[in-house]
Each structure stands twice: as structure tokens, then as C-alpha cells.
TrEMBL record, chains A, B:
UniProt KW keywords: Ligase
Entry-linked SUPFAM superfamilies: Class II aaRS and biotin synthetases
Xref: InterPro entries: aa-tRNA-synth_II/BPL/LPL
EC number: 6.2.1.n2
Enzyme class name: ligase
The protein, known as: Amino acid--[acyl-carrier-protein] ligase
One Gene Ontology molecular-function label: ligase activity
Length: 302, 302
């Protein structure tokens, strides 16, 4: 924890991250953004030839789809719903008086049709399902969006609003598990090419409550999710900078994703935590990009 | 309205925008994003030499700053607050049962410390204030973020989550009003260079309720805000694609922004509605970028 706070303070002092008064909610400097943009271009170079369809969803999604996703079963504590004022002139006067008196005015806010996106791929599944059957050769999608997780923290690698880049693959079991393995190999290679020490391990997601322990055990036992770990604030507690998920046919069943031959599609996704990767680079090579190792600079900026 | 729906349908059919089941909440195709990226590079070329400090805030901001901003006085109906589940294991079971039964589960959600950003510059003022006095030569900032406005609509140019690029200037009255005039001239020039018909008019913001009419009159009478209007779905009802705001010393007073000589800073901001500008281009030149006029393509993609 101490190392996390000290790294966060150094990021604030250098101006790379900008305090907003809320833990896990930060502004980014132009330099920080430049590192993320460079890393995204590296992703494009590695994955570009695969011919994924690029889609960019905004940071919020249809709440009905969010509900159907089952996220509230596993991670209710992390989810964010968007609420608005829906009253009349009279209600507005009460609201302003409530705010004036420093009381809690937010209880009167009503849920809108929008929930914040918890992972970049969540809006994709219902979108693809509406298009009809997926080619027998599989479908491949390239996504990126800001995501929300309600977990205030002094660990700069645990932000409440952060960007996730993802590739999602839909097809036969063999197709999507090969996709996942390909990206596990590529991920290790990419991180080494920018001077980062990596290891791959089974994931350890923070499923909520007692029932959550069963879900976590199941995820581990079936090797459904792997993470690529890099030391950011601690050698002992490494940070998951990529994840590799195989959903079997669970999303195919849920969303009605089928292949041309009528079988239910299997799906897998590979995610890059863009802020975490940038922070791993700053932690390893220093806060001044100008003095990063020449090989790393060359890989990122050519 | 009919033209708005028909344009929206054509955007869906072409795949440039992607339905999510919520009005005003859409996915974007890679081609749509490419137009926005090209227009942002045009902004960089026009504004780059001014030496603005680039800062990128996430799509949410500190709710305490949001409250202090006064946004709930003027546009309560447009604002979005982020709410989360904060209960225990028992509450979680109730929540899941409530969802199972199709009842409203969102009433139990509690407001977090985060509100969605209503305009890209909102998080900037408290950030700059904390740094201490602004140089007598003024401060200039380059911002971009997704912004939220709760106004579901079939008009593709009125989205609930959209991107705003902004320059914000802080300094003396003469400095910031010159900045604003410079960008009004540049804005007209830029839009003409990509083949768009523009006019500038005083703004007509949707201030809420009876008290709002006074605020709207004040804004108009004092010429505090101008808009650059372009026909998107209608020649009669043009769409505001840029805005040019002079806040006098209102934000300087509110946030404690001072110049080195101790006087209160005046502020002005210039905003680009990036989705609206992209849509104006598609409306004018057609949905197939490959057949846009050569001069427009050259300005955007070199």
C-alpha cells in the first residue's frame, strides 16, 4: 500500500496524473495520453492483419442489456448506473433548496436507461446477435472504451474510470480457444518488446459475497480466465494488465449467438488495461519518457 | 423530425452508427471514428501553434465539483449522477430477487462521488485553481472527453453520450475575448475548408423551468455565448456544432482563479461537438467517404 501511495504521489508531482479529489478518478497529461496512443498503435500493428471489425461504443450501455448480462450477480459492488432529475419546476426548487442546505439531494435522482460500461465488450454481444448468424469462419471485433468500476483506491493501477482495448472472437470452440492462445503468446511478446517483465496466471476476480466464492472457484478450476501480470507498484502483488477470457458457449446461449450451421457460438475476449500498461511502463522505465531505453522508445514511437 | 429519423435510419443501415436500443446512445463504426480522428488532427493543425496544455479527463468528474459548478441550477434535466450498490450479502440477495421479478431494483442504488461530465471543461477550473495564480500572459488548455446529457432523441445530432473537444482560455478580459473571437473566425474558416455551410448566432440553451427563462435571456442579452450552426438534418433547424462561451469573471470568482497581479481571471471556452461535425460531413457529402469531394478529403486526410 505504501508503495502504491508513493507511486501515485510521484505521478501527481510529475503531472502525468492529475488529482480530482476522488480516489481512482484522475486527469491525464498529454504525455500520459501519448504513451497510451503509442501502445494502441503497437496493438494495431500486431493485430491489424487479423482483419477485426472496429466498433467504438461510448462509455455507457443500454441498462436492459447490462441487466441481462448478469454483471449484478457477480460484481454488484463495481457497477454504475446513471441517474437523472426527472421532476418539474416545483421539484427543482426543492432540489436546489436541498443542495443549498448541504443535504443529500441524490435520493430523488431516477435511474435512466443507461448503465456505465463495465468492460468494453459488454455492448457487443447483443449487437452482433441482432445481425443474425455469424460466419462459419468466425467473427472478430476490435473494441475500446472507457469503463467504470466502483472501487475507490489509492493504487494508481486501480482506477474507477479507465480504458480497455479488446478483441472479441466468436466461432467454434477450436477457433476461439486458438484465438485466445494466440493473444496470450502475442501479449507476452509485446510486453517483452517494451521492456516489461510478465507472467501469466489464472485470474482472481473479486466476485461478490458468499455465492461469489463458488463463481470464483469455477472460473479458476475450468481455466476460463487468464491474466498477464506485471509488477507496477509491487513485485509481490503484480497487476493484471491483460486478461484472456474463454466464455465457452455461455454468452452464445445468453445472447442467442449462432453460427451459420445453427450451432451456438463460443466466444472469447482479450483485453488490454491501457492505463495499467502505461503505468507499468512509467514504473519500470521512469516518469521521464525522454530517458526510457532506446529500444522501448523505438518500439513505441518508431 | 421526419428528416432526423430518416437520417438516423440511413446511418444505421450504412453501419456508421450502431443501434443499442436506447435513443441517443449509439456505437460508432471504424469509418465514423476515422472521420472524427481526422477532424481532430485538423483542430490540432489550426490550434497547435498556440501551445495549449493538453489534459484529458475521463467521462466522469468529482460530484462535489459538479455540485459547486451550478449545473443543477440551469440544466438539472440533462445531468447524470453515477450510483452503485453498497449493500451486504443479504441486500445482494434482495437485489437479485427484485431483478428476477422484473421490479425496479435501481432505487437501492446509492450515489457515488462521481457525476458524468456535462462539458469537457467542467473538471478543469478546480484543477487550475489548485495550482495557484495564472500567468499574467494567460493560461490555455486543450481538452477532450465524452460528455453526458440526458436528452433521449431520434435526432442523431442529439446524443446522450458524445465527445466534446475544447480549448479553454483564462486571463484578462481582453485576452480571453480576443481568444474567443480568434476561434470564431477560425471555426468559420475550418468548416468552409471541409465544405460545410456555416452561420454564427447567439446561443439558445435549454435552461430549465421558469427561472431558466431569466438565465436564457441574460445569456442572449449579454452575448455571452455564440454557436456555429450547420444544417445536419434540417435547413430550418440548424445544429450547433461549435460554441464560443465568454464567462466574464463568473468562473474566476466561483473557483478562485486569479492572475499573478491578484485580479480575478476572466475565462472563455470554445467547444467542438465532434459527433455533430462528423454527422454534418456525412449529411452534406454522403455516407460513403470514398466519394466525398477531393478537396474535403485532402483537407481531412492530406
Amino acid at each position: 500500500m505504501d508503495m502504491q501511495v508513493s507511486f501515485l504521489d510521484r505521478l501527481f508531482e510529475s503531472g502525468l496524473l492529475i488529482e480530482t479529489g476522488v480516489d481512482g478518478l484522475y486527469g491525464r497529461s498529454g504525455q500520459f495520453e501519448d504513451v497510451i496512443a503509442a501502445f494502441e498503435r503497437l496493438i494495431d500493428r500486431i493485430g491489424g492483419a487479423d482483419g477485426a471489425e472496429a466498433i467504438r461504443f461510448p462509455p455507457g450501455m443500454n441498462r436492459a442489456y447490462f441487466e441481462k448480462s448478469g454483471y449484478m450477480k457477480s460484481f454488484p459492488q463495481l457497477a454504475g448506473t446513471v441517474h437523472s432529475f426527472c421532476g418539474n419546476d416545483h421539484d427543482h426548487l426543492s432540489l436546489l433548496q436541498c443542495m443549498e442546505e448541504g443535504k443529500d439531494w441524490t435520493k430523488e435522482q431516477k435511474a435512466t436507461d443507461i448503465a456505465l460500461t463495465p468492460a468494453a465488450c459488454y455492448p457487443l454481444y447483443p449487437t452482433v446477435a441482432k445481425r443474425g448468424p455469424i460466419s462459419q469462419n468466425g467473427g472478430l471485433y476490435d473494441l475500446q472504451s472507457y469503463c467504470f468500476r466502483h472501487e475507490p483506491s489509492k493504487d494508481p493501477a486501480r482506477q474507477q474510470l479507465f480504458r480497455m482495448r479488446e478483441y472479441v472472437c466468436m466461432g467454434t470452440e477450436a477457433h476461439v480457444t486458438t484465438f485466445r492462445q494466440t493473444w496470450m503468446d502475442r501479449g507476452v511478446e509485446m510486453m517483452r518488446s517494451i521492456g516489461l517483465d510478465v507472467e501469466i496466471d489464472v485470474a482472481n476476480d473479486p466476485f461478490f459475497g458468499r455465492a461469489g466464492r463458488l463463481l470464483a472457484n469455477n472460473q479458476r478450476d475450468q481455466n476460463l480466465k487468464f491474466e498477464l501480470l506485471i509488477p507496477v507498484t509491487s513485485q509481490a502483488n503484480k497487476t493484471a494488465c491483460m486478461s484472456f477470457n474463454y466464455h465457452q458457449d455461455a454468452f452464445g446461449q445468453k445472447w442467442g449467438l449462432t453460427l451459420e450451421n445453427g450451432s451456438v457460438a463460443h466466444t472469447a475476449c482479450v483485453g488490454f488495461g491501457l492505463e495499467r500498461i502505461a503505468l507499468a511502463l512509467f514504473a519500470k522505465h521512469g516518469l521521464d519518457v525522454a530517458i526510457w531505453p532506446e529500444a522501448v522508445r523505438k518500439t513505441l514511437w518508431g
